[in-house]
Amino acid sequence: MDMHKLTRELNVNNEAKIVLVVADGLGGLPMEPGGPTELEAAATPYLDELARHNTCGLMYPVLPGITPGSGPGHLGLFGYDPLQYAIGRGVLEALGIDFDLGPDDVAVRGNFCTVDGEGLITDRRAGRIPTETCAKLVEKLRAIRLPDVQLFVEPVRDYRFVIVFRAAGLEGEVEDTDPQRVGARPLEPKARHAGAQRTAELAAQFVHQAREILRHDRPANMLTLRGFAKRPDIPTMRDVYGLRAAAIAVYPMYRGLARLVGMTLPARPLQLEDQLNALRRHWDEFDFFFLHYKYTDSTGEDGNFPGKVKHLEHLDAQIPTLLSLKPAVLIVTGDHSTPCRLRSHSWHPVPVLLAAETCRPDRVSGFGERECLHGGLGQFEARYLLPLALAHAGRLQKYGA
């Protein structure tokens, strides 16, 4: 039986609240043999205390050995099989800035980057330019004209922007142009099948014109394209889990993913403290809260071990505020691992902590990768986390006689 068909049948409505805290890129690695991971190096007394009295484990966002993008990583956390529901990054970015994608639209995420005189990428994120600079560059790109297509170019945040190609018959199956490393040239957009050839040609024309427009704008003197996609058909969390769900996220992509699965976005917070205030204000309106914390990921991508440790400690300091609201279930985990040692997403399983009055305590004495390896949740796929949370919240009835 399909998991969603089962949860529809077993769903129970009650007043229990579930809070899912996602520290993006939570999992890490030691920088040297025998050393601590970022999470193990951080002083996290509140998370450690929760771990001692509840249950922990390690979680595979997709499958063992598979390195997940942020989209698949979060889909698993929301109880969707990320192999069944493939969602392009462009769609998530567009929905995250409230762009109304239609049936003829193909969305793609753009990254401003830096190239040298030979056209080789020296910085994939253009020095993480501020959003104000991004908006000015996007205004320049709006001068681009393509034949027989409506073109939209919108700023997102920092070095990120969105392009939407609108025309009948376009398909989204086009390869990314980001080579995912420095010292290489941006790739040409290539169609994965004949039906997407026109989209690839339009993207190539866009890049050609953009190269001329941006060539004097260091550090953002070039761009790469990622996540060509059309909006998919996906059931909502209210439909499959009976949850009135809310997303309290800062970055547009995560807001877009939440919107796609039917979450309400009640606020546009800027900092973690603002997110907690928004959660408190809307506590009575929803059953499920997704709170996203980005900075553990960005510091991991930058290889900034002390910075990631600092952000983990900042998150830990807010745990008493969350507990004061008395959620029936509190989960703290990540959507994937981003070890500072690798400066990228990785395939390593992610620590997860589930706190509820109905937990069966294990022998974990602190919240970290080594401890969670021995936790009572074991090692499991992320798509089973939400059903576990529903069970602990009393929101699933017995299956069968």
Q: Which band does the percent of strand residues land in?
A: 15-25%
Task: List the helices and strands in order.
Answer: HEHHEHHEEHEEHEHEHHEHHHEEHEH
Tertiary shape: globular
Q: Provide the number of structural domains.
A: 2
Structural class determined from secondary elements? alpha/beta
Q: Which ranges are low-confidence, i.e. pLDDT below 50, for 5 or more consecutive residues? A: none
What is the CATH architecture assignment of the largest domain?
3-Layer(aba) Sandwich
CATH class category label of the largest domain = Alpha Beta
Describe the structure.
The longest helix is centred in the middle third of the chain and has 18 residues, at 197-214. The chain is α/β, with parallel strands linked by helices and 401 residues long. The chain folds into 2 domains: 3-86 and 234-392, Alkaline Phosphatase, subunit A (3-Layer(aba) Sandwich); 92-229, 2-Layer Sandwich (Alpha-Beta Plaits), CATH 3.30.70. It is built from 15 helices and 12 strands. The mean pLDDT is 95. It has helices at 3-10, 38-41, 45-53, 70-77, 89-96, 131-141, 197-214, 237-241, 252-260, 272-281, 295-301, 305-317, 319-324, 369-372, 385-392; strands at residues 18-23, 55-60, 105-115, 121-123, 150-157, 160-166, 222-229, 245-248, 288-293, 329-333, 350-356, 378-381.
